[in-house]
Design brief:
The protein is an alpha+beta fold. The chain has one domain: Mog1/PsbP, alpha/beta/alpha sandwich (Protein Transport Mog1p, Chain A, 3-Layer(aba) Sandwich), CATH 3.40.1000. Helix content is 15%, strand content 52%. The protein is built from three helices and ten strands; from the N terminus they run E-E-E-E-E-H-E-E-E-H-E-H-E. The strands form two sheets. A seven-stranded antiparallel beta sheet has the order 3-4-5-9-8-7-6, with helices on both faces. The protein has a three-stranded antiparallel beta sheet with strand order 1-2-10. The longest helix has 12 residues. It is globular.
Amino acid sequence: MDWREVRLEAIGGSALFPGKPVEVSRTLQIGGEQDVVTLTLRSARIDNTVFAVGWVLDGRPNTREKLEAAMLANIGAQAAAISRQALEKSDRVIHEVAASGEMRLRSDSEPVPARLWMRSLSINPARSKQGGSVRIIEIIAAGPAHELREEDARLFIESLKLWQ
C-alpha cells in the first residue's frame, strides 16, 4: 500500500489513504420520502477492499445511525458479529463499529467472509434539535476477511484528523 495524507477540505480534515482516492457524491433515501441526503465519499480501493471517508453536510439527528445500519446491512452483519463502542474526544462522541459478515466479490460469485471497521460522528447535534442540520462524518475500511488486515484498517480509521 502507498499510504499518503489527503486533505479533506469539505469537512476540514485529513486522513491517510493507502492509494490515490477518488471522490463521488450520491443522493440517498435513508428513511421515508422526506429523508434524502447527499453522501460524498472519498475512497481508495486496494484489490477488493475499500478505504473511504464519507460525509453528509445536511443530515438529521438520526442520519448517522441510518448510515451505520446501511453499512452493516451491506455485509449482512448479524447482531452477534457486531462490536460497538463510544469514544469521547474533546466535545465529540465518536462511534466505533467492528463487524463481520459476507460480501460478494462479483455479482455472479458466492459470498465470502467480510470485515468492516468504521468510525462515525455527528457534529452540531444541539443545533439540530432547534431545526438546524447535522454534519455526519464517517471513515470506513471494508473488504474480504482474507484481504483486510486489522492493522491496516486501524491505521486508516485512526488517521482521520478534524481541524474544526
